[in-house]
Amino acid sequence: MPAAIVHLMIAAVWLGSMAYSLFVVQPRVARFFPDESRREEFLLVLAHGNRRGVIAVVAGLALSAAAVMVTWPAVAAVYAVALVPYAAATTIFVNVSWRHWPARVFALPEELPGFHRRLRIQAWAMLVLVGVAFALTLSASVVRW
Fold first, then answer.
1. pTM
2. Going by fewer Cβ within 10 Å, which terminus of the chain is more open, N or C?
3. What does residue 34 show for φ and ψ, rounded to 5 degrees?
4. What DSSP designation does 111 have?
5. Cβ–Cβ < 8 Å for 100, 115
6. Would you tell me how many other CB atoms lie within 10 Å of the CB of residue 86?
């Protein structure tokens, strides 16, 4: 069960940080920087270095899920199923991190609204996927506790 607690804590951190970004940071940045070029510059600085943290979270989720599946067979199937939305969210993160942001950095000003729209869609998809995986693992852990 300690592995489940670690897993749920890591998942809560990822879910909470994405929700905070979508509901608090992004709207406030838009209000604070009405000039789009300054906003883009700030967002680039804000996003710089986040890859390592998210990769650490994903690795922690995978390792802790594996530990749960080995040590707590009663919930192993649910944790295995939860790996699917985590993997999908990770795939979206890889796309955003290694394709979307580099292209956005070199985008023309008139292309930025399209990048913003695509990023919002991908961020919401990640939030939903991680939320579903978290709900699955939490419910299985609480019911079997």
1. 0.91
2. C
3. -65, -25
4. G
5. yes
6. 24
